[in-house]
Amino acid sequence: MSSIDFISPDKLARLIGVAHCPAVIDVRTEEEYDADPRFAPETLRRPAATVSDWAPEFVGRSAIVVDANGKGSAEGVAAWLLRAGASSADVLNGGLDAWVKSDGAVVPEGTPKRDPEGLTNWVTRPVPRSTASLVHGSRAIFRP
């Protein structure tokens, strides 16, 4: 079983939108979410209290767990994910607070909507003009 590592907001920013990006899981409490209802792109929201119920979704997958400030339940959730069979489970160092302070992209919940396959479209960095016509106008399509 892998050990839990911490990932910096800068490293996470480089991973979002690429094919090998781990699942990003937000485990903030309802109160923390109500105080700041934004997410990093591609984030899945799951309650930490029921991790034993949803952890099997991540068997064989890599994950990055995000809490409000890096002092919450992210480490415990990462440990559960590893125990359930995730290939790796890292914790975002400093949580969503650190992500926001590092100027990481944030979006409101539900933006954009997932398609029937569970996929979304994201542009996390400028698309070079020479390839812009090969993708949908100025939007590149990334699949998790």
What would you say this structure looks like, in words?
This protein has 144 residues and is an alpha/beta fold. The protein has a single domain, classed as Rhodanese-like domain (Oxidized Rhodanese, domain 1, 3-Layer(aba) Sandwich), CATH 3.40.250. It has helices at 9-15, 30-35, 51-54, 74-84, 95-101, 129-132, and strands at residues 5-7, 23-26, 38-39, 43-45, 62-66, 88-92, 107-108. The strands form two sheets. Strands 1-6-5-2-4 form a five-stranded parallel β-sheet. Strands 3-7 form a two-stranded antiparallel ribbon. Mean pLDDT is 83; it is low at 130-144.
Brief synopsis:
This protein has 144 residues and is of the alpha/beta class. It has one domain (5-112): 3-Layer(aba) Sandwich (Oxidized Rhodanese, domain 1), CATH 3.40.250.10.
